[in-house]
Amino acid sequence: MPLDSRIDEITDRIRDRSRATRETYLKRMRDQASKGPRRGHLDCGNQAHAYAAMPGDFESGEKGALVAERTPNVGIVTAYNDMLSAHQPFKDYPDRIKAAAREAGATAQVAGGVPAMCDGVTQGQQGMELSLFSRDVIALATGVALSHNTFDSALYLGICDKIVPGLVIAAATFGYLPGIFVPAGPMPSGLPNEEKAKTRRDFAEGKIGRAELMKSEMASYHGPGTCTFYGTANSNQMLMEFMGLHLPGASFVNPGTPLRDALTDAAAKRATEITGLGNEFTPVCDILDERAYVNGLVGLMATGGSTNLVLHLIAMARASGVQLTCADFDAVSEATPLMARVYPNGLADVNHFHAAGGLPYMIGHLLEAGLLHEDVATVAGQGLGAYASEPKLDAGRVRWEPGPRESQNDKILRPPQDAFAKSGGLKQMRGNLGLGVTKISAVAEELHVIEAPARVFHDQDAVKAAFKAGELDRDCIVVLRYQGPKANGMPELHALTPSLSVVLQRGHKIALITDGRMSGASGKVPSAIHVAPEALDGGLIAKIRDGDMIRYDATAGVIECLEPDVEAREIVHPDLSANGFGLGRELFEVFRNTAGRSDQGAGVVI
After folding, report:
1. Stated pTM of the model
2. Binding positions for [4Fe-4S] cluster
3. Which HAMAP family does this one have (predicted)?
């Protein structure tokens, strides 16, 4: 199928805009790759340190093979810890990868670990103010791990919210090396997500106690694996397939299953085949071009993915010399039908989505509709068409066969010509309040336009207190400011969702406008988020007063204050000194001081 003209035009605009930065990036990557295997630049003392703990003796073991550069050496970068359910399965991956590499005639070493925090634990807590910056810390830590310069390719073990974007930024920076991203899969389905959400709303209204809330939460998050709603973690996994950095069909296979183990083995083996020592050299820099990012944007829109990826994709692209803008997200959304309904955009979880046909079904249909670039480099060694296949077990190993062509549940998954909506549901918002983004795929149509007086807050606890006091039981637009990267690290504000949802259920129109983030689980509450410039940078959002008339118009993509004198007002910033200490926030002052704008990825290291 010929490429859709709209997708073609968007790609051309990105290519033209990125020409200078992409050429500079690729020149650097080619220069690094031309120097051959990295170990060749280490002297004897360097190499002795690097291989001292490897098994066997020099003559017959792995050490001699590494020195002779006869065999690939795969670096493992792991985000393992056993507090994150999604990352707990990674505990045993290094030994499994090393065994698979040996079987393939190669070696593997754990190059280093990177931090991985759980936004579910820190939601609504002070620790969330470190969350976005952890993406940059992960990129930096990966840089340290790979700086030993002894690897021919890398395996990146990470899943959750900031971990995959941080690893991609680093993989792009070391783009002369091949790299494969290795997932662990979602936990089996537990309490249905809508029941969990109802319990949270009931708790917010005081209808139930904490014991009932805890019982519900523990029934939802109950075992190893990714949370099963379609938030940022699972959006990350989708993205890695659409961008060709996973093996096909790897994203949503449950942990601890034979197929999951076989896919990990296959990733290790494939990482040995795509090095510069063989005939299939596939460095990450060749994968992460403008076409791959457009494919990722299409996947994000077609699945109704996380708003956090608006920040992360821009930052990831910049690391590979590609210049994305919020307008690109808007344009791709307009061209891409919403093919999936997964919670919070529907009742199904990712296991139901996977069973209904999942990513192979979607990629196959989007390719047929001309909405994806097929002619891209991938770790599978073929174009994106390989990702319309699904993995099966065959005598303990993986083989791929054509993916499903029919949806097994049309309440969850539909083809483009019969999609749930004509556009993807993410929309750029512009106006005198600045530049932001909204996600409307789960928002009722009658809430797409709201004009109401502002109720202004400087922290989310004050919003919750106002809700409990009944002050939000009216049509209003909650303006929550000083939540941007420079003010307090741009925490997610998902903890507000239950309270604001209750206001909607009571029949009032309410929206949120903020320079902060919502969760990847942003749901039924209309929200204009990531507003830039942020309040601390002098954005107009800092000048809003209680009672000002605000217009939120997702149909036209407009956020504006309707008061004629708003531009002339002076800004008096609140005292934000308390944001600078406690739970390690002291260590991140340099990050807050140097953070970029949210519409530029809110990055520190790029």
Report:
1. 0.95
2. 160, 227
3. Edd
